[in-house]
TrEMBL record:
GO terms for molecular function: peptide-methionine (S)-S-oxide reductase activity. HAMAP family: MsrA. Belongs to the MsrA Met sulfoxide reductase family. The lineage of its organism: Eukaryota, Viridiplantae, Streptophyta, Embryophyta, Tracheophyta. It catalyses: L-methionyl-[protein] + [thioredoxin]-disulfide + H2O = L-methionyl-(S)-S-oxide-[protein] + [thioredoxin]-dithiol; [thioredoxin]-disulfide + L-methionine + H2O = L-methionine (S)-S-oxide + [thioredoxin]-dithiol. This is Peptide methionine sulfoxide reductase. Residues 70-90 are annotated as: Disordered. Residues 95-237 form the Peptide methionine sulphoxide reductase MsrA domain.
């Protein structure tokens, strides 16, 4: 009779090599010039002190954001889709503009005479109280905007429109330089019928001047969500490198946008 003897081999966990999957948090591709000024802002911006937002922005562009389209659709909010119900200071008016990364756009509006206050934030999406990570996931449809408060007696809406057109290229869809995504789209978001009329007429004039299709959207202003404090007056405060840029009214110094 042939006897078969079973032998059990015990392997300790320490002897088993474990697969290692890591994602580098030190990706730092430089960003070439955004229209029409020079920039050293990274392609995937370091907007916070930790590397997490940068990684989430990168993953979001690849379809691995913190929210899937299904998740986002469950979070649709009538508040986010409603009008901006904040009130400007007495005698002042609001306007909203999206023209790419809001850091440089805000500084440009800060320099306009008659502008009394600027804030950067998120709007035109369907998620209530979005974070920077949320909008970078590419699933919430938010736009990075500057909400401008201005005195109509000393600053016309047309003056704000001039600043808006000069600051970016309105013929590139969902893109300014190497900043790509729906949050970087060109948009004018109006509060009054007068602002809407002026915006439409200005767009028509600008398109004739450029002889190219202007993709700027003109829509009613929706709920404005103020961005994280880190983003507010970012370039005026010096950004990551501490190089403060002037907010003096009428200043024509080149705006350098950096992460």
């Amino acid at each position: 009779m042939l006897l078969l003897r079973a032998t059990t081999v015990t392997t300790t966990p320490a002897s088993l090599p474990l697969p290692l999957l890591s994602i580098s948090s030190h990706l730092s591709l430089s960003k070439p010039s955004s229209f029409p000024v020079t920039s050293t802002k990274p392609l995937f911006p370091l907007r916070h002190s930790s590397s997490t937002p940068k990684i989430m922005s990168w993953l979001g562009r690849l379809g691995f954001g913190t929210r899937t389209p299904a998740d986002a659709s469950m979070d649709q909010s009538s508040i986010a889709q409603g009008p901006d119900d904040d009130l400007p200071a007495p005698g002042q008016q609001f306007a909203q503009f999206g023209a790419g990364c809001f850091w440089g756009v805000e500084l440009a509006f800060q320099r306009v005479p008659g502008v009394s206050k600027t804030e950067v934030g998120y709007t035109q999406g369907f998620l209530h109280n979005p974070t920077y990570n949320d909008i970078c996931s590419g699933t919430t449809n938010h736009s990075e905007v500057v909400r401008v408060q201005y005195d109509p007696k000393s600053c016309s809406f047309d003056s704000l429109l001039d600043c808006f057109w000069e600051r970016h290229d309105p013929t590139t869809l969902n893109r300014q330089g190497n900043d790509v995504g729906t949050q970087y789209r060109s948009g004018i978001y109006f509060y009054t019928p007068e602002q809407e009329k002026a915006a439409i007429e200005s767009k028509e004039r600008h398109q004739k001047k450029l002889n190219r299709t202007v993709v700027t959207e003109i829509l009613p202003a929706k709920k404005f969500y103020r961005a994280e404090e880190y983003h507010q007056q970012y370039l005026a405060k010096g950004g990551r490198f501490g190089f403060k840029q002037s907010t003096e009214k009428g200043c024509n110094d080149p705006i350098r946008c950096y992460g």
